[in-house]
Design goal:
- The chain is α/β, with parallel strands linked by helices.
- It has a single domain, classed as Nucleoside phosphorylase domain (Rossmann fold).
- Helix 1 packs across helix 7, helix 2 runs parallel beside helix 5 and helix 3 crosses helix 7.
- The protein starts with a strand and ends with a helix.
C-alpha cells in the first residue's frame, strides 16, 4: 500500500473525493485524520496538521497502522524561483531541514539532505508528464514557520538553491528513511515567489481540520486591506489542490504500470 501523507484536509480534498474511502477512527491517537481506500489502486491518506512535530507523529502513526511499502509526501509549498507558479508540482531531489529562526540556521545542515527513492522519483516524473502538469525538480527546504515574505523566499532560492519551501517535508522524509521505507515528495506551489502571504495562512501547530475560509474571514475582520492578497491565495489553493489530485491519480497509474498491475481492473 502507498500512503499519501499531507498536512491539511483541504490539500487532500480532491484525492479523497476522487475515490472510495472510509474514514479511520483515530480518536485515540490525537489530532490525525486518516482515510483507508476501499479498493486497490488508491493510496491511503494520512493528514497530521502543520509543522514538523505533527508530521513526525503522523508519519510514525501511518507506518504503524498501514505498514506502507512507500510514502508520498504531498501538500502545499511556497515558491523560491521566479518561474514557479501556483499549481505547479515540485518533485524533491532532496529534503533539507533548517530548524529554528533564521538567526539559528546552520547551513552545514544543507549537506545532510535526505534523497528520495530513485525508482519512485522516475515514476513521479512520468506521472507529471502524463498528467500534463507543469513541474520542477530540486531541493525542498523545511523551516519551522510559514514563509510569509517574498524576500525570504527569494533568499532561500538564491542563497541555498531551494526549489521550494514548506514546514513538514523533511520530517516525513527522515521518519520514512529511518524505518527503511521508500519515499518521494510531490508538493504543489501555493504562493509564488514574489508575493507576500497573508498571515491568515495556517501556522505552526495547526491541526488538519483547519478551515481555510474561516481562517481568512477571521483575518480580514482585523486586516480588511489584505482582501486582494487573500483572494489571490484562495484562488491559488484551488489550483494547488487540483494539481495534487491529478498528480496522485497519475502517479498511482504510472506505478501500477511499472509493477505490472492492471490499474483499470483495480478501479
Amino acid at each position: 500500500m502507498i500512503v499519501a501523507l499531507g498536512s491539511l484536509l483541504r490539500e487532500a480534498s480532491g484525492i479523497i473525493r476522487s475515490g472510495e474511502y472510509s474514514k479511520v477512527d483515530t480518536s485515540a491517537d490525537g489530532d490525525i485524520l486518516a482515510y483507508s481506500p476501499e479498493g486497490i489502486g488508491l493510496p491511503a491518506v494520512v493528514l497530521g496538521g502543520v509543522g514538523s512535530e505533527r508530521a513526525v507523529k503522523a508519519t510514525k502513526w501511518a507506518i504503524k497502522y498501514f505498514s506502507p511499502e512507500a510514502i508520498v509526501s504531498f501538500g502545499y509549498c511556497g515558491a523560491t524561483r521566479q518561474h514557479e507558479s501556483p499549481g505547479d508540482i515540485v518533485l524533491s531531489a532532496g529534503a533539507v531541514n533548517l530548524p529554528g529562526t533564521p538567526f539559528e540556521w546552520d547551513f552545514e545542515d544543507i549537506a545532510d539532505s535526505i534523497g528520495p527513492d530513485r525508482t519512485l522519483l522516475v515514476i513521479a516524473r512520468n506521472a507529471v508528464e502524463n498528467a500534463g502538469l507543469d513541474h520542477h525538480h530540486g531541493m525542498i527546504v523545511t523551516i519551522s514557520h510559514i514563509t510569509k515574505t517574498a524576500g525570504m523566499k527569494r533568499w532561500l532560492g538564491n542563497s541555498i538553491g531551494a526549489a521550494a519551501v514548506d514546514s513538514k517535508n523533511y520530517a516525513v522524509a527522515s521518519v520514512a528513511s529511518a524505518n527503511g521505507i521508500p519515499w518521494i515528495s510531490a508538493l504543489s506551489i501555493l504562493d509564488a515567489r514574489d508575493i507576500d502571504v497573508p498571515i491568515s495562512r495556517a501556522g505552526e501547530g495547526t491541526g488538519p481540520r483547519e478551515g481555510e475560509l474561516f481562517s481568512y474571514a477571521r483575518h480580514l475582520s482585523t486586516d480588511p486591506l489584505d482582501l486582494p492578497d487573500v483572494l489571490r491565495i484562495v484562488r491559488a489553493s484551488f489550483k494547488a489542490t487540483s494539481s495534487l489530485t491529478r498528480f496522485m491519480d497519475s502517479f498511482m497509474q504510472a506505478r501500477a504500470a511499472v509493477t505490472g498491475v492492471d490499474y483499470a481492473s483495480l478501479s
